[in-house]
Amino acid sequence: MRNVLRKAIAGPAQSRRDAGSRTAAPLRAQVREEVRLDSALVPIVCAALLYAVSWVMGCSSAPAGKPAGGKKVTQAVLPQLSPDDVNDKLTPALSGRKLTVEKMAQRAASSLQYANEEYGIAFDAPKGYQLKEGELPQMDRGLGYLGPIPMHFAQPGGIRLATVEPPAGIHVGTNFVNEFFTVSAHYGATPAVCAQFDIPEGGRTAALTRTIESIEFHGFEERAAASMHQYRGVYLHGYANETCYEIGYGVATAGVGASSSLKGIDEEKRLKALERILGTVRIEAPAFENPAKETSEASGENKNSSSR
After folding, report:
1. Is the distance from CB of 227 to CB of 145 less than 8 angstroms?
2. Is 189 within a domain?
3. CATH of the domain at 140
4. Are 187 and 242 a contacting pair, CB within 8 Å?
5. Tally of CB atoms within 10 A around 308
6. What is the full per-residue pLDDT of the chain (308 aa) written as tens digits?
7. Taking a C-beta distance cutoff of 8 angstroms, is the pair 132, 163 a contact?
């Protein structure tokens, strides 16, 4: 009886286990099939990923393409600096007009500017110096006991245009007397007359040549001494615009005796400083008719009419 009951009770459970085993078998087979199918896709997925990664990296390293307009886009190439120039700063290039404007502004801030449109000549003098236009007054320091600042045209008719001198009181305690830079003009002089100087032969030393605005200037260095004063200067003549231009500069000093407490200045250094003014001289055609020319033409017409 117990066996019958045990079988009766165990029968349904066994049938459920048999049914579950029959149901689980197809499921396990399906899972194994899916696993086999998924493992077959692994190489394909890996290949796709590798292709995608290589495509992204290729795009990031490829050169810039063409924009919509079809023009090639190029990248700016920076200049290569040498090891010595690593600390230098790169400055943007300026146009010629801007450079000219800035140079003129800098010149106006650091120098005195002289320009004579009548004779077409201009120059810049150091700021703080005295710029005197026209003839010099009788009380001008000049060359001390050696006389006034000279003009060396061989024939009369020259006109002093401007002179630059330092302010009083500089080089205190030295044998310095004065220094100057002067510009004169002789309209109507011929080139042959312009080549002549009234400097005495004994006062001339070395012959000099300078080129200013494509105009050749020729001249001499001169020296003079008297009454315990010395003078050393340079005078140049150049011909252009029917005018003989004269440029002179020099330094005057007082004698230094054995018992003198004055310190001698370096004349060579002062002459080089004055020669820097020479480097600023500009000569061009006059902006309008020279009055001296009109006067000479008018006098010629008067002579012709009187002869008739």
Report:
1. yes
2. yes
3. 2.60.120.1690
4. yes
5. 4
6. 455 445 545 555 555 555 555 555 555 555 455 545 455 566 676 677 777 767 666 655 544 444 444 443 444 444 454 444 444 444 445 555 555 555 555 555 557 899 999 999 999 999 999 999 999 999 999 999 999 999 999 999 999 999 999 998 889 889 999 999 999 999 999 999 999 999 988 888 889 999 999 999 999 999 999 988 999 999 999 999 999 999 999 999 997 655 567 888 999 999 999 999 999 999 998 876 655 555 555 555 555 555 55
7. yes
| Residue 60 lies inside a defined structural domain of this protein | no
Asked if residue 170 belongs to a domain, the reply is: yes
Q: How many CA atoms lie within 13 A of 288 on its CB side?
A: 5
With residue 271 as reference, give the H or E element that holds it: helix 267-278
Q: 260: domain range?
A: 113-288
Q: Is 305 contained in some domain?
A: no
| Spatial separation of the C-alpha atoms in residues 187 and 159, rounded to whole Å | 9
Residue in 250, 261, 278 with CA at minimum distance from that of residue 179? 250
Q: Cβ distance 217 to 262 under 8 Å?
A: no
CB 132 within 8 A of CB 148: no
| Token pair 């018992």 in the structure block, residue | 259
Give the total number of structural domains in the chain.
1
For residues 230 and 225, give the distance between their C-alpha atoms in angstroms, rounded to a whole number: 4
